[in-house]
Amino acid sequence: MPTALLVPPSAAHQDVLDAVLRARLRAQQQQTVDPLFSDPEGLLRQYGRILSAVPGAGDIPFEMWDHLPRMLQVWSEHRLTIVLKSRQIGISWLLAAYALCVAREQYGANVLMLSMGEDEAADLLDKARFIESRLPPRFRARKGRDNRSELEFPESRSRIVALPATKDAGRGQTATLVVLDEYASHAYAEESFLSIKPTIDAGGRMLVVSTAKGYGGAFADLWDAAGGMAITKSEGAFWEPKDKMPGPNGYYPVFVDWTADPRRDQAWYDAKKSETPPGKMAQEYPSNPEEAFIKSGRPVFDYDVVKSFDPVAPRRGYLHTYAS
Ligand SMILES: Nc1ncnc2c1ncn2[C@@H]1O[C@H](COP(=O)(O)OP(=O)(O)O)[C@@H](O)[C@H]1O
Ligand SMILES: [Mg+2]
Q: From the alpha carbon of 94, which atom of ligand 1 is closest?
């Protein structure tokens, strides 16, 4: 009886086997990855739909407001980004669309979305699910796990996971993209950052997004360390560093002011101000980064009054103390 001997492949033979395997994997990846998802702006312009919170509006076309294309550009150009924003300017919808594109574009992508609590995280994932559900059928993919906290695309072996920002959120995972939405309101902002940050240290991306919530706290510290207070208006409602370089801590700081929604004007602002508690308007709808932080929370001094004072040159001299 002839016996089959298992002979280990020679080095040359092994190289050929490896090359064949790599080529097969590449072909498989190309098959599952649609170029549409490498261009989130194009995807949104052509097929973007959102579910409007405006009563009776429902399923509406995604409008490409002026600050949104530059925002997408910054997110793809910089590995680490921090965004200070005014409320209701379409950033959560944009985050959801971007997360979906990363999950559909990159084979094996692991996208983690962290929000204040389970409900907010599920809501952000639902936005991604909604955008995907409104794409033409040829661009839609088969789903694996599809529930409140996960949306999985088995063909590209990728997934989006929505997590509440607990102390050990994401610990032990490797992520392609991490999104922290409304970070200033996360209960364990510092602890969850410490556990989530290592997930992208192998080269993943991190988007930290929030409205301000008083000066101090993990979001304000990260903003300060990114040189956020020094950025200037670049176009329309969009503010960024003049030299277009990330700040000292490696994060690229962006501020988007209250004018970002094109339907807003001074009359809108004044009406909103009249129904908003004093001191909160600047937090929710800031005109500049300083205002967002200084006036938000519970300021000791009224920012408008302090701003109205004329600075006076200090009188310098010596204080002599005499022994009596
Ligand atoms: N691109 C868009 N086109 C049209 N309406 C939008 C768009 N993005 C957001 N909206 C409207 O603004 C509301 C708030 O959007 P959201 O993304 O939650 O804002 P933010 O996260 O900046 O507070 C949505 O419910 C929707 O009505
Ligand atoms: Mg939001």
A: 17
